[in-house]
Amino acid sequence: MFHIYTAQSLGQKWVKTYQEFSPIFACILGFTNTGLIPGISAAGATPEARKYTAIADAEFLINGVQSSYHYPLPPLTQGVSPVFITRAVVETCDIPIYLFNAGLPIFPTVPFIDLGGQPANCLTTGKALPLPLVYNLFQQGLNWGEKLANHSKKKYLILSECVVGGTTTALAILTGLGINARGKVNSSHPSCNHEQKELVVKEGFKNAGCSLNSKPINPFELVAAVGDPMQIVVAAMAITASLKTGVMLAGGTQMLAVYALIKAIINTSEYHANLDNIIVGTTRWVAEDSTGDTVGLAKCIGTVPLIATQLNFSYSSYEQLKIYEQGYVKEGVGAGGSAIAASLSFAWTQEKLLNSIENLINNYHRNYYDRDQL
């Protein structure tokens, strides 16, 4: 049900250590105006729709199928939100969920923990977030990572995200840390828009007054210049939580960037993390995306175990799921991490996971009044 693509020995050690544990699921929501650039993301059919993607995903993640929603799931160009994968697992397995607002334009309509952040300016400005806010979000993340780990007896922590445009801010962070990520990141498009992303990042560094060929800058200053609010929060949570339990960074390119950020922080400050306790968990659609190079990117970052669910929608009865096999959507809201957890902690088979996801979609069709949303 899952495969270890990089740093196999460390990945196998993590799996062996935590396979008898159960997960705690945390989703950190954020927003960057980078996501409003036309064509930059397919996580919402239009820039306007993308403003509400994280809000809608959060509502569905917490409430599941309802007859109506404050913010219905926005229609995608192709496919269906990956939150259906995550919700199918957390609902059936009764996994505890913690929802964090790191910086959204609109508050979620479901219970959440507010970290006092704000949406990031477009990274092209070179002034994405105020530096004092970055440090404050980091401290909030440290505190919550410790709190969640203190409740983790025989539990590991899944840290997921929902940030539209986040693969582009991930590219910016990786680039600023001196990692050659060109042509390696992923996107929600079936074929990654590398050229567009790279031009956006180049403009951001130019306006930040940084040369792409210069020595990597301070990681906090880097996030303030071209990052998004989720990145620094998840990095901080993982740093403190890893000292006490296992951490799965649930996502693809975005979480590889967070892992790189963690390494930069602990290498340039007094903070410490147990990197042996941290893995990146994603989907096969990300790990094997032929229009990017996720495995190569992980290797460029260092000894990071990259694990991916082998979930396959080829034989699904829903076209909205089959389209994943053509490269659309790929990942989000901890879909890969939750699918891995279903297998690791609850011994789910591929058939059971697919049936659970399809049953959820079927219930959504039958109970939600606006069926055109799928």
Topology:
Layout lengths: L1 E5 L1 H11 L3 E9 L16 H4 L2 H11 L19 H11 L3 E7 L9 E2 L16 H20 L4 E8 L3 H11 L17 H15 L10 H8 L2 H13 L5 E4 L2 H16 L9 E6 H4 L6 H8 L4 E4 L9 H4 L12 H12 L3 H18 L7
Parallel strand pairs: 2-3, 2-5, 3-4, 5-6, 6-7, 7-8
Antiparallel strand pairs: 1-8
Helix pairs in contact: 3-4, 4-14, 4-15, 5-8, 5-9, 6-7, 6-8, 6-10, 9-10, 10-12
Describe the structure.
With 374 residues, the chain is α/β, with parallel strands linked by helices. The chain has one domain: Nicotinate-nucleotide-dimethylbenzimidazole phosphoribosyltransferase (CobT), large domain (Rossmann fold). 44% of the residues lie in helices and 12% in strands.
Structure characteristics:
374 residues; alpha/beta; Rossmann fold; 8-stranded mixed beta sheet; 15 helices; 44% helix; 12% strand; globular
Which structural category do the helix and sheet elements fall into? alpha/beta
Q: Could you tell me the CATH topology label.
A: Rossmann fold
The largest sheet has its strands arranged as: 1-8-7-6-5-2-3-4
Number of strands: 8
Provide the residue-averaged pLDDT. Answer: 94
| Helix coverage percent | 40-55%
What's the story with the biggest beta sheet?
Answer: 8 strands, mixed
How many whole angstroms does the radius of gyration measure?
Answer: 19 Å
Going by CATH, the architecture would be: 3-Layer(aba) Sandwich
How far apart, in Å, are the first and last alpha carbons?
27 Å
Task: Characterize the overall form.
Answer: globular
Q: How many alpha or pi helices?
A: 15
Low-confidence stretches: 369-374
